[in-house]
Amino acid sequence: MPLRRVPVLPDDDHPAYVVWELTLRCDQPCAHCGSRAGGPRTTELGTEEALGVVQQLKERRAREVVLIGGEAYLHEGFLDIVRALKTAGIRPTMTTGGRGIDAALARAMKEAGLHSVSVSVDGLARAHDLIRRAKSSFESATRAIGHLRAAGLFVAANTNVNRVNRGDLEALYEHLRALGIVAWQVQITAALGRAADRPDMLLQPYDLLDVVPRVAALKRRAFRDGITLMPGNNLGYFGPEEALLRSVKEGGRDHFMGCQAGRRVLGIESDGAVKGCPSLQSHPYVGGTLREQSLGAIWDEAPALAFARNRTPDDLWGFCRACPFAEVCMGGCTFTAHALFGRPGNNPYCHFRARTLAAEGKRERLVPAAAAEGKPFDHGLFELVVEALDAPEPPLGPVEGLVQITRPVRKGQA
């Protein structure tokens, strides 16, 4: 299965786990896509350039590379890049929506040396197709899992949880279990890219009071079923189920260890831009481009990649600054917080925080304040309102409306 924890020495910062966007070209116009994928970037790396990047990754001791898009299989050199990674001793894996994966492509991926594939399944059929904005997308993802398993690949799934699909979690687990997945990653949809245009689909921080215990209950079942269920880096944080959620083995005592961007993790955009995590906003987190600098120089010298290495509790603000877990958590997921407030260090998507406020009869609500620009990995701005825990829930209307664009007007604009 795709690695979800890469063991390295505590003081040995290097890009052990790399997520590489081969192309922004995509065959699905997903409503929650952080990169706003569709057409390719105008200056994407060609196959020969990409093969050169593989050698640089080997030199920097990368252990696993996850190929993404858009859709990675739409890059002309996809299989050549998989072969090169395998030859270099780097585990090649992939995350995909699966729409274009048939039996022949699945076999070719296996023959090229691909180790495992995580298929994105965002709810049952109705919710998934709404989020993906593509008819029969759920069916194609389900078929892709079958083709990949038949080809002999390890197959996992991943799910973005939001207000469109949060009711599907238990039934979706049953569906995925029946398909024979070996692992399932569950994360929350962040206010990034197209999701920033659709704030009604996003979870509110207090929704974690419902979602996190349900994911924890599913993890207990997953242990019994032999499935590795892991939360994404933006779900959880120091509630009573933290050790259960973060541990690979039953009875473990693992917990969130802070943002690993630029420490153990590296992201590469399809034009060669390098940042500490694939989901980080391009600005201000791109540290350089592989067309102009070597990977080693960017990793070692770019301040944009070193922020997590140098972060201290003094960089935190709001609730996170005074949190008893501040020195370990360091404000949780960087890109999730930055997508809300234009800077990291204060993350309301925290189970401990939601529980603490609930014990005081309070909750936090995110209110859209400024629109995103419409570029890959962009974000708007939100205001944070503290209100009574039992405050009336604003009407949201039918679920179909949650995936419609409702971006707010930018301040100062008509």
From TrEMBL:
Pfam families referenced in this protein's UniProt entry, alphabetically: Radical_SAM, SPASM
InterPro entries named in the record: 4Fe4S-binding_SPASM_dom (IPR023885), Aldolase_TIM (IPR013785), Elp3/MiaA/NifB-like_rSAM (IPR006638), PqqE-like (IPR017200), Radical_SAM_PqqE_MftC-like (IPR050377), rSAM (IPR007197), rSAM_sf (IPR058240)
Organism the protein comes from: Polyangium fumosum
Record protein name field: Radical SAM protein
Domain of life of the native organism: Bacteria
Keyword entries, A-Z: 4Fe-4S, Iron, Iron-sulfur, Metal-binding, S-adenosyl-L-methionine
Cofactor: [4Fe-4S] cluster
Record domain Radical SAM core: where: 12-228
Residues of the signal peptide: none
Matching PANTHER family: PQQA PEPTIDE CYCLASE (PTHR11228:SF7), RADICAL SAM DOMAIN PROTEIN (PTHR11228)
SMART domains: Elp3
Membrane-traversing stretches: none
GO molecular-function term, one example from the UniProt record: catalytic activity
Gene3D superfamilies: Aldolase class I
